[in-house]
Predict the structure.
Amino acid sequence: MRIGVIYPQFEFGSDPATIKDYAQTVEGLGYTHIGADDHIIGPNPNRPGGWTGWVTYRTEFTEPFVLFSFMAAITQRVEFETCVLLLPQRQTVLVAKQAAGLDLLSGGRLRLGIGNGWNEIEYISLGENMRNRGRRVEEQIEVLRRLWTQPLVDLKGRWHTIPDAGISPLPVQRPIPIWFGGQSEPVIRRAARLGDGWMPLYGSPEEARPGLDLLERELAQAGRSRAGFGLEARIRYGNGDPDVWYRLLEGWRAVGATHISLVATGSGFKTPAEHLEAVRRFAGVAQAFQS
């Protein structure tokens, strides 16, 4: 299994020096990838009608393409994954261009995890329709892959029109891998048909069993198998118990996980130094597990 970390966006701060330290520490410890979540704009909780979502205008999120471009310049091997980029609220051709640029400048180190999102205020603010996001994302994937692999694209779809045009330069990976986040039945079905992998948020392999069973059925129906299809699980730092981590690593490996990511947010850490120490502690267990 490939073991990485989720960058603790809203708990880590935005100081470039500490972000550099985080990326280089993660790479130096032997982690294979860094993931980062995506939220572009946050509502005011005191707006008319109120707001109960956890993301507000005070919640810090460094835009993933910008964050990873910075990290790519000061690392050599560690890979980057959006987990997840909220694709339907973004312009597809612009995402294709941004992702291609990051993949090229990082030497092919990008994995694009995508999701539909839940925050209607973001959709309104970005001028996109939240109501058709599930249907629209399938056409977005087609557009992305064609733009990443063909010098010219001539396409007229339901939501996209490209009149014999293309992006340049193309990415190193042609196409860039697209993974699906989320665990609803439509997402699992879509991942099985269209994705290179799946990154759900289950707390344990036991909790994931119904979703994994559905994934197996949907892959078979699509004429595909688990071979070559990625599965990424998250392990929460929790109270820092290595025995719990080890059991989860064993359990996820037993059900075919190809990737694991450590999540340290929500563990009570108040400083970047505490997050870096958590990364170091988990790395020791991960290295023992892999040996």
Observations:
- The mean pLDDT is 96.
- The first strand starts at residue 2 and ends at 6.
- The CA atoms of residues 87 and 114 lie 6 Å apart.
